[in-house]
Design goal:
- It contains 10 helices and 14 strands.
- It is an alpha/beta fold.
- Helix 5 packs antiparallel against helix 10, helix 6 runs parallel beside helix 8 and helix 8 packs across helix 10.
- It is globular, with a radius of gyration of 22 Å.
- It starts with a strand and ends in a 5-residue tail after the last helix.
Length: about 325
């Protein structure tokens, strides 16, 4: 059986992660182009990954080659133009997040798109994240959750922390913003706090803070258990409290959560960037069957996450 042929646009480190995982998934990397017409980075990228062809012009690559799928991982400023042109080729596409930082632009693109597009929110494929998602569904009662997102600035909240916003929507379904307030320092946004709800009546608190010495985390509290992703690559499940009675040396009663189980990523995630191998398998299946994985994010998912960012922080600054 012939391998499916893939072309890549973009030569950054994220595309190197994609290239390695795609090959492991049984896909054949046929050609690569840089998004920058004045760059020659595609030459080294092709050589390093044993890709037969490289193009200095990404439009020429898309027009001249025969392929089964397209991977796009470029600067945000270039992504919409390239994706819009790639959509016309009518083949499956995997495009890196966030695609755009402007909901209006993304909404206009969606009107021209097809159903065979995945967006690269690789954390959706984490074993830890999906275990938590399943455990919450099993609980079948409302929970309280708290997500902490340390970030460097407002711009990176849109471009990087959108991963976390997407995770909230993936784990809890469609979420409704109930309240939000920005932290202002020296007339600049320095963080945000917000509360969301959903149809299940879960209450979800979000704290975004710039330059805090903290890790990303998602803690979920049910009636009898606590689930903690901290960071997203490790899931801890607590089911009781251990009471440590006061002593003469330490006259304070202490309450320590009892760790019932710790769940980590799959072994394959030590070989590749976590989630990328599973994401590549899902893309391979999309090419073969024309059916999208339930794990994968769509352009519409991405639009909803960008809209949440805009509600929290306003439009992305030019």
């Amino acid at each position: 059986m012939n391998k499916k042929q893939i072309v890549l646009i973009g030569t950054s480190q994220i595309m190197q992660y994609h290239a390695s995982a795609l090959k492991e998934s049984g896909l054949d990397l046929q050609a690569v182009a840089s998004s920058n017409l004045h760059s020659s980075s595609q030459v080294k990228f092709a050589s390093r990954n044993n890709i037969p062809k490289n193009f200095s012009n990404w439009k020429e690559l898309l027009d001249q080659e025969q392929y089964d799928g397209i991977i796009i991982g470029t600067r945000i400023e270039s992504t919409l133009e390239i994706l819009e042109y790639a959509i016309k080729q009518n083949v499956p596409i995997l495009v890196e997040k966030p695609v755009s930082v402007n909901s209006t632009d993304l909404k206009n693109l969606i009107k021209k798109s097809h159903k065979l597009i995945m967006v690269g929110f690789n954390r959706r494929f984490y074993h830890t994240v999906n275990t938590l998602k399943n455990l919450i569904e099993i609980e079948n009662t409302p929970v309280i959750a708290h997500m902490v997102i340390p970030e460097s600035n407002l711009q990176n909240f849109f471009t990087n922390s959108i991963h976390s916003i997407d995770l909230l929507r993936y784990v809890f379904g469609d979420i409704k913003l109930e309240f939000s307030k920005k932290l202002i320092k020296n007339k600049m946004v320095n963080g945000v706090t917000a509360t969301f709800s959903n149809k299940k009546n879960d209450l979800i608190q979000l704290t975004g803070i710039w330059n805090a010495p903290a890790n990303v985390s998602l803690s979920v509290f049910s009636e009898k258990k606590q689930f903690e992703l901290k960071p997203y690559e490790t899931l801890k499940i607590f089911d009781d409290l251990k009471v440590i009675e006061p002593t003469a040396n330490e006259p304070i009663r202490k309450y320590a959560p009892k760790l019932m189980e710790q769940i980590d990523l799959e072994p394959i995630d030590k070989k590749f960037k976590p989630g990328f191998f599973q994401q590549s398998n899902a893309f391979s299946e999309l090419i073969k069957t024309k059916k999208k994985s339930n794990y994968a994010a769509t352009l519409t998912d991405t639009l909803h996450s960008i809209e949440i960012c805009e509600k929290l922080l306003g439009k992305f600054p030019n």
